[in-house]
Design a protein that fits this description.
The chain has one helix and eight strands; from the N terminus they run H-E-E-E-E-E-E-E-E. The chain folds into two domains: about 30 residues; about 160 residues, Porin (Beta Barrel), CATH 2.40.160.20. The chain starts with a helix and ends with a strand. By secondary structure, the chain is mainly beta. A hairpin with a 4-residue loop joins strand 1 and strand 2. The relative contact order is 0.19.
């Protein structure tokens, strides 16, 4: 009788713990959910060096679907002539707000392929002797908005750190339309 009660109690306790085990299993495979902040370094197809920061929030479904929003702020080391020899524009900063959609896969879903789509804005500063109206040292700036499309891969390195690789195309009306290839680290908190 005592053995039967012990076995029944064990079965009930095991059955009661199954939902908790299932929840723990989901948490272990949802590596990409939550707030992220990261640093990206790279180069554009024009040879310009890129550095940037990103901040975002992602949700991850049990089926591996990952979606969210991401803010990016960066800078290119541009200093080339894009306006027909008259002036030398320099990109002072690039900012974008992107939607994020991806799929986590592999053992424990620690790999992620994703795409981004959003609005980007670049700040340009123009200076140079090619503008003779106000004399040497003339400076002025302008902003251009455009589309930003990206494709990437992310891999979990530890509980809160991952490696990101991305290629993104930015299209501005000013003739500045780089494809930038970046690698970086993202921290989840």
């Amino acid at each position: 009788m005592k053995t039967t009660l012990s076995v029944c109690a064990s079965i009930v306790l095991m059955g009661a713990s199954l939902p908790a085990l299932a929840e723990d299993e989901n948490v272990e495979t949802q590596h990409f959910e939550g707030w992220t902040i990261g640093l990206d370094l790279g180069v554009s197809d024009g040879g310009d060096f890129y550095s940037g920061l990103n901040l975002g929030y992602r949700w991850q479904q049990n089926n591996g679907l990952v979606y969210g929003l991401e803010l990016i702020g960066g800078d290119y080391s541009t200093d080339d002539n894009r306006f027909g020899g008259l002036v030398v524009p320099e990109v002072d900063g690039v900012y974008s707000l992107n939607g994020f959609l991806g799929y986590a896969f592999g053992p424990s879903r620690k790999s992620l392929i994703y795409t981004t789509l959003g609005y980007a804005e670049a700040e340009f500063e123009i200076e140079g002797p090619g503008i003779d109206i106000a004399g040497p040292g003339l400076e002025f700036g302008f902003k251009e908005g455009g589309l930003r499309i990206g494709l990437g891969y992310e891999r979990i390195l530890s509980k809160s750190l991952s490696l990101r690789l991305q290629a993104a195309y930015e299209d501005y009306n000013s003739g500045f339309d780089p494809v930038v290839f970046t690698g970086g680290l993202a921290y989840r908190f």
